[in-house]
Amino acid sequence: MKVGIIGGGAVGLFFAASLSQWFPVTVFTRTQEQAHTIQTKGIKVEEAGELSVRFPEAAPMDQFSRHAMDCIFIAVKQYQLPAILERLKESSLSPALIFLQNGMSHLTVLKTLPHQHLYVAAVEHGVLKSDTADIHVRGRGQTKIAVFRGDERAISAIVEQAAPSFPFEWKADYESMLLGKMAANSVINPLTAVLRVTNGELISNPYYLKMAKTIYREFSSVFANKLSAGAWEEIVHICRKTAPNRSSMLKDIESKRPTEVDAILGYVLSQAAEKDLKLPALQALYYMIKGLEYKEAE
Ligand SMILES: NC(=O)C1=CN([C@@H]2O[C@H](COP(=O)(O)OP(=O)(O)OC[C@H]3O[C@@H](n4cnc5c(N)ncnc54)[C@H](OP(=O)(O)O)[C@@H]3O)[C@@H](O)[C@H]2O)C=CC1
Ligand SMILES: CC(C)(CO)C(=O)C(=O)O
């Protein structure tokens, strides 16, 4: 089973380092420099003070079509997907494709891909990248995965082999799986980015908690019948479990990088518009994040 990973960011490097224990893995990077560093120095993984180094293959993305893969994990940010989708449409149709993005705006474009086996996933690991090929595992969880098109068989070898140290969990319904994750990302990410607070402060400060509940109420008005009963409790649990962490959106704003707000709140607002629903607090939050992005881009 030849595994390809597109994107040598925090998630891509973690998947590459983990899966290369059992499978031949090639990481496709945006730059030649990063591919060279991975080839020569390996991927350094720090977890709970322990350091390990793994040596998957690596190649720049412009050599992608020269490689034959059985399955490919796509680990770029939502807004980086269009360029990747073009490459995937031009290349072989045979590999199974697994999309690891937060948010849900990619679902519409996935339908346009000709591939037989498509999967979406909700990554519950927390990983940081500190240098070209250096990552830090800040919370080892699991990867929930669901079939978008095709069946489970094309990647069942990976799911079975990687357990228990790098677990995957099959979910029957991709929409409710991604919605659960998106509920947390819709409430926690933009609020922490605007307020510049850790995930834990959202529930320890009673006024921030009221705001979080308001955002959740608006979110659930759009997806009411598809959200699981314990979705709010799960968000509170994530805030508690990741209390000292800064959300990825807060880190993106602080590092002057674009955020995934369009794939998260933008998607929620587009679904609300289709149902003629107004979400005033969530809409305001969306404009605040877009405004912060605009300010940093100036
Ligand atoms: N980090 C985490 O713990 C979690 C992340 N996620 C989700 O996973 C996805 C990836 O996140 P994360 O790894 O943190 O993001 P990063 O920004 O760390 O990684 C994205 C990587 O994609 C690379 N890339 C961009 N464009 C291309 C291209 N055209 N060809 C090849 N590579 C490209 C970037 O390269 P370069 O740096 O050279 O620009 C970068 O290395 C996101 O949707 C995120 O929401 C979900 C759960 C947890
Ligand atoms: C779950 C949460 C909010 C943890 O910080 C996350 O996924 C993120 O920061 O993007």
Can you put this structure into words, describing what you see?
Its EC number is 1.1.1.169. Pfam families: ApbA, ApbA_C. Residues 176-293 form the Ketopantoate reductase C-terminal domain. This protein has 12 helices and 12 strands. α1 links the parallel β1 and β2. Helix content is 46%, strand content 20%. α6 packs across α9 and α11 runs antiparallel to α12 (280-297). It has helices at residues 10-19, 32-41, 81-90, 106-110, 156-162, 174-195, 201-204, 206-223, 231-241, 248-254, 261-274, 280-297; strands at residues 3-6, 25-29, 43-47, 50-54, 57-60, 71-74, 96-99, 118-123, 126-131, 134-139, 143-149, 168-170. The mean pLDDT is 95. The protein is an alpha/beta fold. Strands 5-2-1-6-7-8-11-12 form an 8-stranded mixed sheet. Strands 4-3-10-9 form a 4-stranded mixed sheet. The protein has 2 domains: 3-172, 3-Layer(aba) Sandwich (Rossmann fold), CATH 3.40.50; 176-292, N-(1-d-carboxylethyl)-l-norvaline Dehydrogenase, domain 2, CATH 1.10.1040. It starts with a strand and ends with a helix. Bound molecules: NADPH dihydro-nicotinamide-adenine-dinucleotide phosphate and ketopantoate (KPL).
As residue ranges, the low-confidence spans are none
The largest sheet, given as strand count, sense and whether it forms a barrel, is: 8 strands, mixed
Helix proportion: 40-55%
Categorize the overall geometry.
globular
Write a concise synopsis of the structure shown.
Helices cover 46% and strands 20% of the residues.
